[in-house]
């Protein structure tokens, strides 16, 4: 890490500390925003859970708290001071930035064993990528509002950083932890396997089948340890239904930036089970296709899956989009191949401003209704989906041009 | 790869550029024209009562006869207290309410804004509904002094008389609160804040409360002379929010059809229901909405999602007296009493152009949106424009170097021409937007006395600042990056402005429309180092449409001094939570500064001989 990286991290930490101290009411205001805090990550609900837990009541009774038991024990061990909690969240973001710097420095975004980007000279230096993460307004807002998604993001980034360096153990212990915390990171397992396998330093390399089998066994053991620990902490298996069950079955229909809540409010009960399966399977079908098509760039496949799950998962928040956009910065070198950057950036900006305005009209002013906010979440999701699609186009084009250099700069036309 | 790129458009950029230019001009023209079409019969609609439960004017109003004598007695009482301090007034009013058998509460408040202190004491009484469970309430309010600081003799007397009169009826299903606020601007705000436990520290909490407030009617009936000509219905709320149209329709229908009372809107006393008068009513409504200030005691209730109107008497030559006004209020209250749920059926977004003529949001929103779209289209055009790219020479060299330096057998691609340098323009735009906090904070913290000197200093600063910024940038940045930097900073600034305005249009249509109108020169005021005269014209045009020029225009419209407007804005921010100053200083002013920077840079570049091709 050079001086610029340290400077970026220092400035990123500083801006968060200044926001925490100069505007003491800001964390509470932001924590109540549905765009930032979801039922499965909200800091307010976490506090409620910790309170119940420390007073000897099962936090999972009552249907308010839907977060993993290890978070409970972490926050009940912490001294009950806001400064320390705030510092913990700032630290988490700093660790995320460090992981991003490690990923960028490894060169994996531009050079993999199967693919060397013809544009690798254009990629951003690591400090710029860390800065893009630390100064992303979505990341900052998420850090200030203190939802537990911050920890999931940090752990995912740490896992990727370990994977690009070929360190299988830390990579899969971390991804197991991310899965344990918020379930959907399980989708990232296959690309992470490819990524780790590609970056393995050992010679001769084991076969991919053997590698995967051993890794999966290891992963299951780690997950079982987490579950057993949770069982010891809470004294029952209640937490499974009330954390993963909530992710899967969507009992809490609080609005968020995703596509599920409105759909399932409108849904007749008899169709609910069918569409729940459909929506969850829909997320699953991207995994094999993305992994196979982008086999040459497993890191990009992984980032794409993060982007897809940030749109289609049951309780998304802007923190997920913040993670995806920050990771996408690793592929800055091929942005020149993307076709709609300005339009999509403008659409995201529009949605960012119109969303809170419409939510205000609906909930506070009473002059709008739920359709207002839902319309904006649609715009938000469509622009995010288009960013994912456009980035995939750029990545495929980049691969294509390595195979056929004579096509560089030529236009592609549908026949 | 079967993916499609619009090949022709990417090759022939000039087509795109012309198309966008044409489209943005078209959007602006259509936006303006469609606003002027609204008063026509084809575009506006007759008002109608949407909530059937209201049944306006279906009951007989009994207020009159001997009640009139009671009003006149109370009028005498109010007259005697005319110049007393607010605590004497409050004590006497409380006594009267108590003698009528009502629960009484008093509330002192004190606000500080623009170096002045605004104190007073509200007094109110709660009539518990004989047929209700105290979960809902309606409010009858009379300010002791109305918005023009006149003693509201008739209004207060009528409220006192109605409190005794309503007490005798057994049909109320909602509690009725009689509120005598100490003034028309700060008092109601203090009361409604405290009613919802959201009051500041210098405001007392309320000792007696009732249920959720469903509607508010304010009576403004000043002067010793008790005859009046017509009823002026005032409905604009803080930040341009409006009460539900059903409430206005109820009041209009009752006073016109049941009582035979003429109703006026927006101080249009001789409305002939022709195009011109409709347009003027609508425009006056838009100005009030855009300023977002309080137009009467009812305004403070509206942000709490409480529908409220003021009924003000107008003229003193008519044949109506307190009896007609009392019956009107009685009948409106009977209608409000009928409400089954909160007002929700009718429109919350509308423009009224005659007492019985309106346009709804679906018809008028496109005009403000089109102005914002015009700005956004211009931003897109500026982005697509090849002049936004810089560093052609540098990149060519780099490309050569990369070709040579690349390893053997490795493919190196450099994509389509020069890149856009985003850092400098982005930091100009974001920096200027953050600077907007400075005038906002300064104007909200200075004293009333020093307001005008601060105002002229800030005009001077605001005139010089853009020139300074452009000189600074011209001196520091390398010449071939200058024009693209100014070009892109305009692009981002217009993008932000378009985005803010379209968001604002959903919250406060009129403010968004007026700012959009004033910002039109920003779409064509560009950097022209080769042509100083056109830059001069642009500069003058921008100066004439600056936020300061708009302030002068508003001051001229109301016939007040600029410092009075600024004092009002500061008062609005501290007391009412009025957001107009935030929008002006943090959205509009930065966009204007960036526009001036790119125009002024033409002079600076011409003077320094750094002008490129444009």
Question: What is the count of distinct domains of chain A?
Answer: 1
Strand sequence of the main sheet of chain A, in spatial order? 1-2
Instruction: Write down the overall geometry of chain B.
Output: elongated
Low-confidence stretches of chain A: none
Structural class by sheet pairing and helices of chain A: mainly alpha
Q: Tally of extended strands of chain B?
A: 11
Mean pLDDT of chain A: 92
Beta-strand percentage range of chain B = 5-15%
**Percent of residues in helices of chain B:** 40-55%
The overall strand count of chain A is 2
* Tally of helical runs of chain A: 18
Structural class of chain B comes to: alpha/beta
Keywords (chain B): Membrane, Transmembrane, Transmembrane helix
Pfam families (chain B): Gaa1
Protein name (chain A): GPI transamidase subunit PIG-U
InterPro entries (chain A): PIG-U
What does this structure look like?
- The complex is a heterodimer of chains A (415) and B (614).
- Chain A is mainly alpha-helical and 415 residues long.
- Chain A has one domain.
- Chain A has 18 helices and 2 strands.
- Chain A has helices at 3-22, 26-31, 43-54, 69-77, 82-106, 126-134, 137-145, 149-164, 168-182, 189-199, 208-234, 238-249, 260-266, 269-293, 298-312, 318-328, 341-364, 370-403, and strands at 111-112, 115-116.
- Chain A has a two-stranded antiparallel ribbon.
- In chain A, strand 1 (111-112) and strand 2 (115-116) form a beta hairpin.
- In chain A, helix 5 (82-106) packs parallel to helix 8, helix 6 runs antiparallel to helix 16 (318-328) and helix 15 (298-312) runs antiparallel to helix 18.
- The model of chain A has no long low-confidence stretch (mean pLDDT 92).
- Chain B is of the alpha/beta class and 614 residues long.
- Chain B has 2 domains: 4-39 and 365-393 and 422-608, no CATH class; 87-355, Zn peptidases (Aminopeptidase), CATH 3.40.630.10.
- Chain B is 54% helix and 12% strand.
- Chain B is built from 21 helices and 11 strands.
- Chain B has helices at 7-11, 13-37, 66-81, 86-99, 153-167, 187-195, 245-258, 275-291, 322-338, 361-384, 392-405, 423-435, 437-445, 451-476, 479-507, 509-518, 521-524, 532-544, 547-558, 562-576, 580-608; strands at 45-46, 103-113, 116-127, 136-143, 175-181, 212-220, 230-234, 262-265, 307-314, 350-354, 357-360.
- In chain B, strands 2-3-5-4-6-9-7-8 form an 8-stranded mixed sheet, sandwiched between helices. A 3-stranded antiparallel sheet of chain B has the order 1-11-10.
- Chain B is elongated.
- Mean pLDDT of chain B is 87; it is low at 393-409.
- The chains are: A mainly alpha (415), B alpha/beta (614).
- Chains A and B meet through helix 17 and helix 18 of A and helix 10 and helix 15 of B.
- Chain A: It is a multi-pass membrane protein.
- Chain A: It is found in: Endoplasmic reticulum membrane.
- Chain A: This is GPI transamidase subunit PIG-U.
- Chain A: Pathway: Glycolipid biosynthesis; glycosylphosphatidylinositol-anchor biosynthesis.
- Chain A: The chain crosses the membrane at residues 70-92, 127-151, 171-195, 207-227, 259-287, 299-318, 338-360, 372-396.
